[in-house]
Design a protein that fits this description.
Blueprint lengths: L5 H5 L7 H12 L5 E8 L3 E8 L2 E8 L6 H8 L12 H21 L7 E5 L2 E5 L18 H17 L2 E2 L8 E4 L2 E4 L6 E2 L5 H18 L6 H9 L1
Antiparallel strand pairs: 1-2, 2-3, 3-5, 4-5, 6-9, 7-8
Helix pairs in contact: 3-4, 5-7
The chain binds adenosine-5'-triphosphate and magnesium ion (MG).
The site of magnesium ion has 3 residues, from loops.
Length: 233
């Protein structure tokens, strides 16, 4: 078990609610990381931090318990066959949301998709492999690929793999793809759902539209319908 200094942790007590603080401390005591380092992103539903594990870094994604958009989360998850019995209970939804991202990442990884390795999850906290070197890898929107066609094709191959594994990302855009040395790394899988979900086709069409629109803007044209056929072939 990693050695955790309580003193070092005290400072975070003012940042998180008690429940989240205890969850973080438990994950750290289990040896997944030693201490939080710095905030990476303050998002709509989650805060992302980097954390130290030995000489390495990992990513800690913390879903907020109070201020996130539960109704929107519930709207998405209630159609997922795996969560059909879920009642609209706030915390349970956030926990299920966290667990779902972990499970989706596992499945995506097994399907051969380039995603951060999910390390562990507990309640509203998810530990992930750190994508990047010293800094986190830039989002696609902030780092235009040198070869747009090849990068686009790699994304489509990724979507194909995901589809074959029975999944649709459902929140794909140039915000949720990192450009790691000209390789796409797909992130943010909490909305990712099964093809069995009655809304999966609508989500897939939207994902493809987002990607095609972005690439059109940066000067690479593609056909959305043709791309959809390739992904679902
Ligand atoms: N494994 C990772 N490695 C490196 N950076 C990451 C990783 N996971 C997330 N990030 C960074 O944190 C940001 C937010 O992560 P993510 O998209 O998963 O959360 P989010 O809740 O969707 O945030 P937002 O509300 O801003 O969309 C990403 O855009 C990325 O910059
Ligand atoms: Mg995101």
């Amino acid at each position: 078990m990693a050695k955790i200094s309580k003193e070092k942790w005290k400072v975070w007590g003012n940042v998180f609610d008690d429940f989240t603080f205890r969850t973080l401390f438990k994950l750290a005591s289990q040896g997944h990381f030693e201490e939080l380092k710095s905030p990476v992103s303050i998002g709509k539903e989650s805060n992302v931090f980097s954390a130290k594990k030995g000489n390495e870094k990992i990513i800690i994604k913390i879903y907020r318990l109070e201020t996130c958009d539960f109704n929107r989360m519930y709207d998405y998850i209630k159609y997922d066959p795996r969560y059909i019995n879920l009642k609209s209970q706030k915390r349970k939804i956030v926990f299920a949301w966290t667990q779902r991202e972990y499970r989706n990442l596992m499945k995506a990884r097994e399907a051969g998709l380039n995603v951060p390795r999910p390390i562990a999850f507990l309640n509203n906290v998810l530990c992930l492999e750190f994508v990047g070197n010293k800094e986190t890898a830039p989002k696609l929107k902030d780092k235009i690929p040198k070869n747009k066609k090849i990068f686009f094709e790699k994304i489509i191959q990724g979507l194909q793999k995901l589809y074959k594994a029975g999944l649709v990302h459902a929140d794909l855009s140039h915000f949720n793809i990192l450009n790691l040395k000209e390789e796409p790394v797909f992130i943010d899988f909490s909305q990712c759902t099964l093809i069995r979900n009655p809304r999966s086709e609508e989500f897939l069409i939207r994902d493809i539209k987002n990607i095609c629109n972005f690439f059109r803007k940066i000067g690479f044209k593609s056909d959305e319908e043709k791309t959809l056929k390739i992904v679902t072939k």
